[in-house]
Design the sequence.
């Protein structure tokens, strides 16, 4: 497995790095188009790209809230824009996310297969170009793709102790869970509010909930503080429709706390 740490986020700039410009940017644009056009009848691809964009932006702002640099936040966002790419693998069935019932443990395991599939897809592409495989962006992006469903109680698909992962990888788990909880599923009567979703992640009002034992108490505490401040400032999550040009990882975007 690859050695990963939080310092990797400051070792390059996704937008201007010459290795990434030469070997990865064009592939990423093609990948965005492929994701956006995936399962067009149901709109699954556009919904997935919107989810990836929201989590990337949310995570970047949370990193800034924690004191990480703007460059680190931007590189994290560029990585999160593709963290669900495994859902486009030919062996993955996207209808597993359209269940009319609450998913069983077996169905949840099938849903989360995309993490390993996506990491393997990205690694296979980068192995064709040694300069990419040795690049810090590969390690960051591979990590958030592979580990974004891990938990500190080792109940994630890889069985990894999330607390041993770098902060940025643990954040990918939290923000993915938050955004996922904000999406109304077919078996739900209504969607959750931002406050309901973050309280659920933090275990507030629940003694044996879905996320009990999932996240670092200190990190989820800071995320709760971050989200409550956003809610106070009237910055709420919204399920907007994605346009392909909005998803480009080289596009400029405004971060809070600049």
Sequence:
């Amino acid at each position: 497995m690859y050695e990963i740490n939080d310092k990797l986020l400051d070792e390059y700039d996704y937008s201007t790095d010459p290795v990434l410009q030469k070997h990865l940017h064009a592939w990423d644009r093609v990948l965005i188009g492929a994701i956006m056009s995936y399962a067009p009848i149901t709109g699954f691809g556009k919904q997935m790209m919107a989810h990836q964009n929201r989590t990337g932006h949310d995570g970047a702002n949370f990193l800034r809230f924690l004191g990480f640099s703007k460059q680190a936040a931007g590189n994290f966002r560029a990585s999160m824009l593709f963290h669900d790419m495994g859902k486009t693998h030919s062996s993955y069935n996207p209808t597993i996310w359209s269940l009319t019932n609450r998913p069983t443990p077996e169905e949840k395991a099938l849903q989360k297969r995309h993490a390993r599939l996506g990491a393997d897809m990205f690694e296979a592409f980068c192995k064709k170009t040694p300069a990419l495989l040795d690049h810090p962006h590969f390690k960051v992006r591979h990590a958030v793709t592979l580990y974004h469903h891990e938990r500190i109680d080792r109940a994630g698909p890889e069985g990894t102790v999330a607390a041993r992962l770098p902060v940025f990888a643990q954040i990918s788990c939290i923000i993915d869970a938050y955004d996922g909880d904000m999406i109304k599923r077919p078996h739900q009567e209504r969607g959750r509010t931002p406050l309901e979703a973050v309280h659920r992640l933090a275990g507030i009002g629940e003694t044996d909930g879905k996320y009990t034992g999932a996240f670092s108490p200190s990190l989820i505490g800071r995320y709760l503080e971050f989200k409550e401040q956003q809610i106070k400032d009237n910055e709420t999550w919204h399920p907007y429709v994605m346009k392909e040009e909005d998803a480009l990882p080289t596009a400029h975007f405004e971060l809070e706390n600049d």
